[in-house]
Amino acid sequence: MNFRKNVSTLKLPHYKSTASIEPVRIPIPQEVLLPMSPMNKHGATNAEPVVQAGDHVYVGQMVGREKDRGSAHVHASVSGTVKAVEEYRMNGARALAVRIESDGKQEPSPDLRIPQPTNLDEFLQCVRDSGVVGLGGAAYPVWAKLSAAQKSHIQTVLINGAECEPFITSDHRAMLEHGDLIEKGIELLKQFLGSEEFIIGIEKNKPDAIAALKQRFVNDPAVKVMELGSVYPQGAKQVLLYNATGKVVEKGQRLASLGVIIINVSSLIKMAEYFVTGMPMVERIITVDGSAVKEPKNLIVPIGISVKDLLPYCGGLKEEPGKILFGGAMMGKTQESLDAVILKATNAVVIMDRKDAKATEPSPCIHCGRCVAICPLSLNPTAFDRAMQLEDDEQRAALLTDAQVKVCMECGCCSYVCPSHRPLAATNSAALSFMRSWERAKKEGGK
Ligand code: SF4
Ligand code: SF4
Q1: Which of 228, 250, 277 represents a domain boundary (last residue)?
Q2: Which of 255, 277, 299 is the last residue of a domain?
Q3: SS (H, E, C) 267-313
Q4: Mapping DSSP to helix (H, G, I), strand (E, B) and coil, where does residue 62 land?
């Protein structure tokens, strides 16, 4: 991988119409459905349900137990009765999910306690108990990321408040509403990780958040609020790392070996909230926007609520949806229906009308090289495209490995600039998923 240091070429329309809209907590829905998987792109393992139909549950009670460092505990976001443990399907993945009918009381679990860790191991265990995962979309358990501190000294914590994707403003609003929790999170990381430097990287299209955080940390020399250019994909790990610290992480190199970790700002806030309230992650701020939505808003919603149940709080839809995305216009994942449920890492629901959703028919590649020139990682998406057309799995895997598909971060820049409208990002996604299944099958001796 040859990281391209200048990524200032892709300036997208921001569509951040909800940036000035304070998040509103919506009434509790009649039911929620809590998948045991973060349904993310990294093929995380699933948690195991620990409740069954008929059980009474309280808010914050564990209903799914993590299996390993790739999964996270799942907690009830409403109090009430477990109606079923059933299969849930999303983006081609399947997982068990716990359906809970709310009793309308929102009674917190009597077992919840404010954590009081005294050392790094206890701190990591508390973060693990909180169920907080990477809320920028990765959904990787936060405790597992922080556990890098057990092996390497983490000198610098890079707090990702870039939020470069069009439409999404949930991190922006979280930074404005929860400066106190950002401060608390930084205190905890100073105390338990021993980190000396904290950089909060924010795109300059959020001047109010930059000003508020600069003011909050004016007397703390360890914290630097860094204004970043509004270019896409500013929030991508490699891009943010380089722009904020001048460092470059090479293929196969752990970020922690550079003495750095990157944490999404909303993840930091949720982690800190657990240490203040003792309540695990059961709700989040999401942006609801897109051309089909009557009143775009930021909402505070319980995890597991369906899109259908939150739409009335945005005035409903102007017309039948043409496309439903979880996430922004560049990296968002298409959802099959309004029954899709909000997951921990769902930062936005973007619903396009039919006109905006209509994709332009792709035409053959004209070998212009724009996709290669724009890729922040200097990858060649046309090679992935060619590989995916091969019938032979071995040959396909060899070509994809050679072209380093596994470092693709699915940012979508290549698709965006392609004059032939080739769906390169979707092909990359399919290629990554092929590689995961191929490697899994090989490991299990099936190849
Ligand atoms: S999606 Fe395209 S531009 Fe982005 S990293 Fe992958 S190949 Fe490069
Ligand atoms: S940008 Fe599109 S047309 Fe140009 S080389 Fe890439 S795939 Fe081909």
Answers
A1: 277
A2: 277
A3: HHHHHHHHHHHCCCCCEEEEEEECCCECCCEEEEEECCCEHHHHHHH
A4: strand
- Give yes or no for a contact between 286 and 298, defined as CB atoms under 8 angstroms apart: yes
Task: Answer yes or no: are the C-beta atoms of 83 and 55 closer than 8 Å.
Answer: no
Protein residue with least CA distance to atom 5, ligand 1: 408
Tens of pLDDT, residues 183-205: 999 999 999 999 999 999 999 99
Q: Residue 99's Cα: distance from chain center in Å?
A: 23
Query: Do 377 and 250 reside in the same domain of the chain?
Result: no
What is the reported pLDDT for 447? Answer: 47
Ligand 2 in reach of 120 Cβ (< 6 A): no
Alpha helices in 131-264 (DSSP H): 142-146, 170-177, 179-193, 207-216, 237-245
Question: Degrees (nearest 5) of the Cα angle 129, 349, 238?
Answer: 65
Q: Is the pLDDT of residue 418 over 50?
A: yes
Cis amide prior to 27 (ω within 30 degrees): no
Beta bridge mates, 333 = 326
Mutate to test the pocket of ligand 2, among 9, 360, 363, 371 (most ligand atoms within 8 A of CB): 371
| pTM of this structure | 0.93
- Altogether, the residues listed in the chain come to a count of 447
Direct distance between the N- and C-terminal alpha carbons of the chain, in angstroms, rounded to an integer: 27
Look at ligand 1, atom 3, and give the residue with the nearest C-alpha: 375
User: Which residue would you say has higher pLDDT here, 5 or 304?
Assistant: 304
Q: Is residue 104 part of a domain?
A: no
- Choose the residue to mutate in 418, 421, 427, 428 for probing ligand 2, maximizing ligand atoms within 8 Å of C-beta: 418
Q: Which domain holds residue 413?
A: 370-443
Answer whether 379 contacts ligand 1 (Cβ < 6 A): yes
Number of structural domains found in the chain: 2
Q: How many CA atoms lie within 13 A of 90 on its CB side?
A: 29
376 and 268 housed in the same domain: no
**Between the CA of residue 345 and those of 93, 253, 281, what are the distances in Å?**
16, 25, 11
CA 287, CA 432: separation in Å to the nearest integer?
Answer: 28
- Asked whether the beta carbons of 50 and 63 are under 8 A apart, the reply is yes
